[in-house]
Amino acid sequence: MARSDSDGIRRERIAGSALFRDGNFHNPTGVGPGLKKGHGLSMAREMICGNARRVPAGPLPSVDPRDSWRRAPESGLRATWLGHSTLLIEIDGARVLLDPVWGERASPLSWAGPKRFQPVPVSIPNLPKLDAVLISHDHYDHLDYPSILQLAKLEVPFYTSLGVGAHLEAWGVPPERITELD
Q1: DSSP readout, the chain?
Q2: Has residue 80 got a pLDDT over 50?
Q3: Domain boundaries, the chain
Q4: Over the stretch 108-125, which tens digit does the pLDDT of each residue have?
């Protein structure tokens, strides 16, 4: 998987952000009590060795959304959950795909890492025409390399946070289709 670090104008925009200090972005509202520094090891242990309630006993109910996508939402707003972080939001005729992850694992490795326990109800080629793809941040469960490779082939703009555009560009999304926001 090709990766690109932020440089040039992108690096200047990052350095100029009020949220960027001491080489890192900082959450302006702080972090929740369970996510404070030093809890990483206990969180990792719980994720790896935690109880079986993390995975459903069987498949969750799933509906093929394509029929509903053929009709405009009655209220002008519809959200279709496609798994973990992935949503298709329809608002007043615009369709925005959020954090697309179609991969089997949220990991840089195909054989290790958190595994999907529910199949995605529709493939990327079967999505309706998209107006935008929004990537919130660059964790593996929100930014999936194989999914981006497929979406890069579509004529759709990408919107993301500062710095994430470097990944998208390295993975084949044309720079003129990437907008990074602070």
Answers
A1: -------HHHHHHHHT-TTEETTEE--TT---GGGSTT-HHHHHHHHHH--GGGS-SSPPP---THHHHTS--TTSEEEEEEETTEEEEEETTEEEEES---SSBSSSSSSSSPBPSS--SS-GGGSPPPSEEEE---STTT--HHHHHHHTTSS--EEEETTTHHHHHHTT--GGGEEEE-
A2: yes
A3: 8-181
A4: 887 887 888 888 899 999
Q: What is the pLDDT of residues 19-57, one digit of tens each?
A: 778 887 777 777 666 555 555 666 666 666 666 566 778
Write out pLDDT tens, residues 132-146: 999 998 888 889 999
- CATH code linked to domain 8-181: 3.60.15.10
Distance CA 66, CA 94 (A): 16
The first and second tokens of residue 42, run together, are: 């206990």
